[in-house]
Amino acid sequence: MNKSAPRGRRPGSPDTRAVILDIARRRFLAEGYHAVTLRSIAAEAGVDLALISYFFGSKKGLFGAALALAVNPAEVLAEALKGDPATFPQRVLRGVLAVWEDPVAGPTLIAMLRNAIQEPAFGALVKEVVEREIVDRVAAWLGGAAARKRAAAFGVQIGGLIVTRYLLRLEPIASMTPDEIVRHLGPGLRRALQEPGQRQEPGQRPAGRPPGGDRS
Amino acid sequence: MNKSAPRGRRPGSPDTRAVILDIARRRFLAEGYHAVTLRSIAAEAGVDLALISYFFGSKKGLFGAALALAVNPAEVLAEALKGDPATFPQRVLRGVLAVWEDPVAGPTLIAMLRNAIQEPAFGALVKEVVEREIVDRVAAWLGGAAARKRAAAFGVQIGGLIVTRYLLRLEPIASMTPDEIVRHLGPGLRRALQEPGQRQEPGQRPAGRPPGGDRS
DNA sequence: CGGATTTATTCATCACCGTTGAAATGCTAC
DNA sequence: GTAGCATTTCAACGGTGATGAATAAATCCG
Question: Are the C-beta atoms of A149 and B184 separated by less than 8 Å?
Fold first, then answer.
């Protein structure tokens, strides 16, 4: 019972590369980077192990290629930046929740973040993107004194939400509804955007700061 | 040049177990779980590979044993719960910063958290401890409506601080001084502890809310 | 003291992992 | 058609964590 396929190229034009990529994506998301072996992917694709190296160079290369087509999280922010400044935190929260709970984008982002936390090379990339695309933009939008630090305080809370809700799945944060999240996190988020000395005036946005303001 | 040690037990009473544990701790903290091989630890300890399995069962067992003697993060909270309620957030922030920047406890906690995020079994343990020791206690201390959810909003921010500052080392949060952290995160943290509907009155703790203890 | 038991240690080996180089085969351009 | 390129399998390598058997010291017990 010699079932080994003949040696060279297969007849027809089967897109083997795409098949491997599909299987890899599904497996990596479901089981995590280290738990998935190249051999098992090759077996599931009905393909020799070496073909994966041929197409993607290495296991890391395959992982990167499989998870490449994620959404760009910066778009959520760009969208949220456009509306009424008074409700900016709510919009960001809604957007973040929508993206991270999207059945295709969410798991991809989670897998990427998981790996960023343990793989320094990958982590540096995430770090750079977040700093440039998130912190700097919020800081520019904020203006005023210590804008970058206020943006950081904002980012801390968004990051905390993501990690506790989606990575560690801590309760009760993991099972709260989006409305509850907005209700409980919105005020603190808004407060973090203000300048630290200031008191919050009831019923209005902190005065004297038109949204197109000066740089930090 | 046959340098192989004789087979059985060594003379004297060398505490080989402790030696292995020491080396393992240093290496795991410096290089991370996956980068360290049991063989390299065994070599550095001048010991056969199988001895590690004999003492600790598996690589995971060794990792757990090597990182077991960490501080109890719940103590930080217990300490902070005792003082003036108005400055509770500041005390927690100072305590968290002190522990996570401690040269011995800090790296241990970071390594544990890193692994908790990628290893579901280990993550479940962290999850349980945090929920029981942190969230529940803060909720009990808070009292009032939706105490557990307000405590969760608090925990989100503390968790976000830890992840962004110590795990991902995002700027500018990673290089801010403790004073700056307290200045920028304190107000948002205090706001998260209040009940969501309320407006913050300047200069005092939230006044007596209507006792309509509605579950959210 | 001396034999039996427990504890510590090495050796040899296993199955599996990711990577690599060589060979074989089909497809495409000239 | 045939030369070259893209795809595919095969075979092997060194490295990994785990495990069972052999051996020697320490300890217990009479």
Answer: yes
Query: Beta carbon of A64 within 7 Å of strand C?
Result: no
3-state helix, strand, coil in chain A (%, to 5): 65, 0, 35
Give the number of other Cβ atoms within 10 Å of residue B206's Cβ. 15
Cα–Cα distance measured from residue B199 to residue A187, given in angstroms and rounded to the nearest whole number = 9
Identify nearest nucleotide to residue A10 by CA to C1′ distance: C26
pTM to 2 decimal places:
0.80
A206 pLDDT more than 50: no
In which residue are the tokens 């006044």 written? B207
Q: Do B185 and A153 touch (CB under 8 A)?
A: yes
Task: Give me the pLDDT at residue A83, please.
Answer: 86
A137: enclosing H helix or E strand: helix A136-142
Collect all residues of chain A within an 8 Å Cβ-Cβ radius of residue B159. Answer: 160, 163-164, 168, 170
Q: What's the Rg (C-alpha) of chain A?
A: 22
Residues in Cβ contact with B167 at an 8 Å cutoff, skipping those fewer than 6 apart: A117, B110, B113, B114
Cα–Cα dist A71/A101, whole Å: 12
Query: A42 — phi, psi (to 5°)?
Result: -60, -45
Q: What tokens appear for B41 in the block?
A: 């630890």
Instruction: Kindly give the residue spans of alpha helices, DSSP state H, lying in A73-130.
Output: 73-80, 88-101, 105-118, 120-129
Provide the pLDDT for residue A73. 72
The pLDDT of A158-180, averaged and rounded, is 93
Question: Is the four-CA dihedral A172, A173, A179, A181 of positive or negative sign?
Answer: positive
